[in-house]
Amino acid sequence: MSVFRFSALALLLLSACCWAHEETAEEAAEDAGELSVSELLERANSHLTRSDNGPILIEGDVTIDNEAERNADPCTSRGCKWGKYTDGKVYIPYYIASHFSSREKSIITRGLESFSSFSCIRFRPSQSSDRDWLSIESKDGCYSFVGRRGGKQVVSLARRGCLYHGTVQHELLHALGFNHEQTRSDRDNHIRVMMQNVQSGMEHNFRKIATLNQGTSYDYNSVMQYHRTAFSKNNQPTMVPYPNPNVSFGNAREMSRNDIARLNTLYRC
Fold this sequence. Notes:
Layout: H1 2-32, H2 37-45, E1 56-58, E2 62-64, H3 74-77, E3 90-96, H4 102-114, E4 121-125, E5 133-137, E6 142-143, E7 152-157, H5 165-176, E8 191-193, E9 239-241, H6 257-266
Parallel strand pairs: 3-4, 3-5, 5-7
Antiparallel strand pairs: 1-2, 6-7, 8-9
């Protein structure tokens, strides 16, 4: 009888412990729900440091192979679009690592499947015959290469800090070939970069790229637009809208209409 009582008590304590953990996670999710995608990304990647074995990151969450790529978008030197099939769809194989829980996988899957509702992009589970695929893993932070790279291509969505719908969309857009909005070739007509407020060593995050803007206007509401104080060393703005400094920007929690329009234009959906 005493053994039974001990087991029941242990089970009760274990249940209470797990319930408390879930409640804490839920509270954290509610807190994160008030943040934009760019704020979530900066928070998730703020602790990252350069290591010999880690990826080279620029612009906060863009992976490059070597230092030489700092000054040129890889897509400008070689084709980085995913191919279209005869049925007009763009099928992109993906693999979700087994270390994600079922709940975490559902968040990722929802982000993947969202593209099929407004474009010809179709993410599908990878097969052994696929030569190129996205391997979605929980590495240290949130990041992706820009465009199709060939072979196994890691998209990192760390279990701690990156598993939100808009963040998944953001990293997938990188993998589809898109850069951040503030690096657009015409950004100086819309954004003033305040270099005096940028953290030392982070200046490269504001480099301009010879982007293909798909005939769309600059989009302050893009899921690819970073927020006003991104990479700030003094909590002062690193970007100020121009000519109207009061325009709200960098607050997106999911893809905007312009994000969708330029995706469909690039892939001729």
